[in-house]
Amino acid sequence: MPEPIEVIELNGQPATWNMSLRLGTLRRPVRKTHRDKKAVEALMSNPDLIDSLLSMILEETSEMASIAWKDGSFGILFEHTHDCSEAQIESFRIIAPRKRVVRRTLADINGEIEACGYHLDGVSFGIPDPSIMSHKKVVVWAFLPSETLARQEWDHELVDQIVSLLTE
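Now predict its structure.
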C-alpha cells in the first residue's frame, strides 16, 4: 500500500502525497519483494509501462531517479538532497537551518521556472517531511507522471529542466 507522506509543495503549502517509493531503477529492476505488492503487481503486468518509465531515466540521472507511484499514477521520482544544520552529517562549513534551506530551495526553484520560462505542466515538486529520511537532509522531489508523457511529444529536455531545477 502507498503511504501518506507530508510534503511542502512549490507554493509553500503543506500537502499529503500518497506514495510508493523506489519501485525500480535502471540498476535495480522492479522486484516482487517491494513492500507495496499492489503497485509492483500493476507494474509487472504491464511491461510496456516499465519500459516507458525506464526510458525516462537517463544514465546521467540514474542515481537520482526511480519509478514511483503517486496519488494513482506511476511515474519517475527525481530526488536531490541539500544539507541543513539538522542533518546527521559532519561538516567543517556553516550550514543553514532546515527552515531556511527549505525556503531558499523553494524560492530558487520558483524563480528559475519563471526566469527560464519552463512549462512543467503535470510535474509535482515537493519537499518531504524529514521524518521519512534517515539522514534528515532537505530532500527535494520532482514527480513526472507517465500521463504527462502520453499527453505531449516527449523528449529528454523535460528531464533536463527538472534535473537542473533540483541540482543547480
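The chain has a mean pLDDT of 82.
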